[in-house]
Automatic annotation (TrEMBL):
<feature type="transmembrane region" description="Helical">
    <location>
        <begin position="168"/>
        <end position="189"/>
    </location>
</feature>
<feature type="coiled-coil region">
    <location>
        <begin position="100"/>
        <end position="162"/>
    </location>
</feature>
<keyword id="KW-1133">Transmembrane helix</keyword>
<keyword id="KW-0472">Membrane</keyword>
<feature type="domain" description="SH3b">
    <location>
        <begin position="30"/>
        <end position="94"/>
    </location>
</feature>
<dbReference type="InterPro" id="IPR016476">
    <property type="entry name" value="SH3_dom_pro"/>
</dbReference>
<dbReference type="InterPro" id="IPR003646">
    <property type="entry name" value="SH3-like_bac-type"/>
</dbReference>
<feature type="signal peptide">
    <location>
        <begin position="1"/>
        <end position="26"/>
    </location>
</feature>
<keyword id="KW-0175">Coiled coil</keyword>
<protein>
    <submittedName>
        <fullName>Signal transduction protein</fullName>
    </submittedName>
</protein>
<keyword id="KW-0732">Signal</keyword>
<dbReference type="Pfam" id="PF08239">
    <property type="entry name" value="SH3_3"/>
</dbReference>
<keyword id="KW-0812">Transmembrane</keyword>
């Protein structure tokens, strides 16, 4: 019976020791925290309001939680200073002032990006207007060249037609072909007659 009692007490002892060790371990871990949105929080030299006040912290201040005891949290601030405050004045999410600072920084960054995009858009719009103007000018020049080409083609056709319709040109062409025919024909015919005589 005693051995049964001893075998059951030993696991309970280790279980209880583990349960006490776990909260103590969690309370000594350093955790980033913030002062809640109270206007001013008084810091005490120990875990209770009976300890003397050693300073104050403004709402939203970033601190490091070291441990907890009797409803008070020990914090580290200003790099190496420590103090105690009621743990309900401690939060693990940034306060309104910290969020406001982050929002202002984000707003400034987005405003800068927006200004850069607007400037880039303005430059692109200027380039687009210039390219559109150059395209319109090129189309106008192409239309003018097309009209000039049509006019010159028409004038050339008229010039060729009127050239052959002139009497002197027509008579000269007939005379030229007649002269060539008259010079070539006698040379061809006698050669045939001479070749027949030798036979």
């Amino acid at each position: 019976m005693f051995s049964l009692f001893r075998s059951s007490v030993r696991p309970l002892f280790f279980l209880g020791l583990f349960c006490f060790w776990l909260p103590a371990q969690s309370q000594t871990e350093q955790t980033p925290a913030y002062i809640s949105d109270a206007l001013v929080v008084y810091l005490h030299s120990g875990p209770g309001n009976q300890y003397r006040i050693i300073g104050t912290l403004a709402a939203g201040s970033s601190v490091m939680r070291l441990s907890e005891e009797n409803g008070y949290a020990q914090i580290q601030y200003d790099e190496n200073k420590t103090g105690w405050l009621p743990k309900e004045n401690l939060t693990f999410t940034p306060g309104l002032s910290a969020q406001l600072s982050e929002l202002q920084a984000t707003f400034t960054e987005q405003s800068t990006k927006l200004a850069e995009l607007e400037q880039a858009n303005s430059l692109l719009q200027t380039d687009l207007n210039r390219i559109t103007l150059e395209r319109d000018q090129a189309q106008q020049e192409l239309q003018q060249l097309s009209r000039s080409n049509e006019r010159l083609t028409t004038e050339l056709d008229k010039t060729e037609a009127s050239f052959w319709q002139q009497p002197m040109v027509l008579g000269g062409a007939i005379l030229f072909f007649g002269l060539i025919f008259g010079l070539l024909l006698p040379k061809l015919i006698p050669q045939r007659r001479n070749s027949e005589r030798w036979m």
